Give the backbone structure.
Amino acid sequence: MSIFEVNIRIHFMALLSISLLEAFFKKEKETALFGRWIRFSDIAPLIHTYEKYTTVKQIGLSEQQRPIYSIQLGTGKKKILVWSQMHGNESTGTKSIFDLLNTLTQSSEACVQQILNTCTLQIIPMLNPDGAEVYTRVNSKKIDLNRDAVARTAIESKILRHTLDSFQPDFCFNLHDQRTIFGVEGTSKPATISFLAPSEDVNRTLTAGRKQTMNIIVAMNNLLQKVIPNGVGRYTDEFYPTATGDNFQKLGYNTILIEAGHYPDDYEREITRKYHFYALLQGIHHIVSNDDYAVYKPYFDIPNNIKNFYDVVHRYPNQNRSCDAYQYEEKIIKNTLVFDLQKVAEKQIENPLSHNEILFEA
Ligand SMILES: [Zn+2]
């Protein structure tokens, strides 16, 4: 073997430009959606405006008879399925989906046209409208849809699975929110966006499909590191036998989990929403413009997502450097979402990380 046959490959990944993404977000952000509590009544009027540009289908009714919609656009061969709010109180992905829909239906930019010509997207903006109504993770029968992929007890789980079986996507995006407790291991940053390429078995085997999923995540992470350096985490890939992503990946449908998390001072998740939109568009762009999935190892360079943050810490430096730690509990009170601060640890933690710190000198 000559020296020239040594396998040296420069893995160049074509990323979207940040200035283009900024311009898209500025122009196409769906301003009718804001904050954390997004209900079916917030998205229903928007969905009907897309009937002009896309195929809007009602794919079923929730347990409490709220419509579940899918919006389909693009004419290409690669198929991408996106769903959000399978956990009713996790709405950041829903907001960024509408920013994405505005971009894809309004922009004449080459990268947008390439997406529409190369792939067919099916988007379910709210899989669990009953949970969204009352701001719960679970559906109206208290079922966690993300642990119901095998039993499919919930009607919403059946609807998602039917969509998967009939559409047979090449890639899925499973959109969630994570709590403010999550940070990026080895940094002092919160995990603003976290990713997972779910395992197909307990041994976490690196199957060809998982490597493809990881490759898309590598592209999204490369982009995000430019705008939120060290703000991206990697979820544990422990196999969950009943989880949606693990089962879809096992069935051969590459599934990318995105968890929207905290950005400093952004409890409404409006800044996270922007970076989530960047990641989603970059991921789709990468799928349409790339057929080489060789680069997957940098996925493992993304630091772990760990539980290391409190919302508020009170420090008492004159009392043996001790402190109290608090977390917000999210509650609906009188039809308003309230962040209720609760003490969770007292005078026992050394130098905890927090999103807000108050110093008591006395
Ligand atoms: Zn979730």
Q: What stands out?
A: The mean pLDDT is 94. The chain has two domains: 18-307, 309-359.
